[in-house]
Design a protein that fits this description.
mainly alpha, ABC transporter involved in vitamin B12 uptake, BtuC, two-stranded antiparallel sheet, 2% strand, globular
């Protein structure tokens, strides 16, 4: 049984993706066309970019509900820097990413120093960022960003979207950080057994805050790319994005209880969510039913995660 659990943890998300593609291909064979695959990569690359940062957070047994709002506010800041302050696009992008990192620092600070549970801390930051977006934009889109500012959000390199290339590059970088650096070791250890880190004299707080800063930075990057895709900063973008991002990470095998998973699985999880959304649209499933299906997939994934992590047995033993 333990061997089966390990195999499911390692290959389960890939099997789900292959099974999903096989089912969708029965109803709509065009789902397997290369052009459609590139379309899915383009559409879900921004979710994937946010999911890279979310993977770091969830590996530490945390959660970040603010990514959608931070995405919106950072994107709006970048557009405002470029159109109102007339900043060149590199400076506007750098400033917007710094804003996202600041919100990540606030979330991490609330969790580490304020002892606020991650759910509540990031829920509060989500409200702050969304309110700040509405104040900055006054409820209206900010348009007029330069062509160079917008270019990465809509352009392609041959058949491959630039956003997809950015996602894959981030995935590789995150894999190196998690698997080949001391910081990555600390991230896994913090999710698995934080007390061990403390006893070893490691600064737990620095690691915990850093993962939220990373999540804020990736959300800001996604926000800038969204502005480029839409050629304007919309005040209502990113609403509900948290579900897709968290579901992608958990579907990819990263445990909500921390210490297990990685960005390789996260990429597979993003593709599962992307093809699920794409396939449901192609076979003309009602948009309302799509939300029900996606929510059910997320709940099922959480239950499976609890089973694989042995949480049911752990909780029963603790209650006795």
């Amino acid at each position: 049984m333990d061997d089966l659990k390990r195999r499911l943890q390692k290959y389960g998300s890939l099997l789900i993706l292959l099974g999903l593609l096989a089912i969708l291909a029965i109803f709509y064979p065009g789902v397997l066309r290369f052009s459609n695959m590139m379309n899915v990569l383009a559409q879900y690359s921004l979710v994937g970019i946010c999911a890279v940062g979310m993977t770091f957070v969830i590996l530490t047994a945390g959660i970040d509900l603010s990514v959608g709002s931070v995405l919106a506010f950072s994107g709006a800041c970048g557009a405002w820097f470029n159109t109102v302050l007339r900043m060149p696009w590199p400076l506007a992008w750098a400033g917007a990413i710094a804003v996202g990192m600041l919100f990540g620092f606030i979330s991490g600070g609330l969790v580490q120093w304020g002892r606020v549970p991650p759910f509540m801390a990031t829920l509060a930051v989500m409200a702050m960022a969304r309110g700040a977006t509405l104040i900055l934009t006054r409820g209206y889109p900010i348009s007029g960003t330069s062509t160079a500012f917008n270019y990465p959000g809509w352009a392609s390199m041959g058949p491959v979207p630039v956003t997809g290339t950015i996602l894959l590059s981030l995935m590789i970088l995150a894999w190196i950080v998690l698997r080949r650096t001391i910081f990555g070791t600390y991230v896994y250890a913090l999710g698995d057994n934080p007390e061990t880190l403390r006893l070893a004299g490691i600064n737990v707080g620095r690691t915990r805050i850093a993962v939220y800063v990373i999540s804020g930075a990736t959300a800001a990057l996604a926000g800038l790319l969204m502005v480029g895709r839409l050629w304007s900063a919309q005040p209502n973008i990113g609403i509900g994005l948290e579900l897709d991002v968290i579901a992608s990470v958990v579907l990819g095998g990263t445990s909500l209880f921390g210490g297990m998973g990685g960005v390789g699985g996260t990429f597979v999880g993003v593709m599962i969510m992307g093809f699920l959304d794409n396939g449901l649209r192609l076979i003309e499933i009602s948009s309302y039913l799509q939300q029900v299906i996606k929510g059910s997939v997320f709940v099922g994934t959480v239950i499976l995660d609890m089973y694989l992590k042995g949480r049911y047995h752990y909780n029963r033993s603790r209650d006795q």
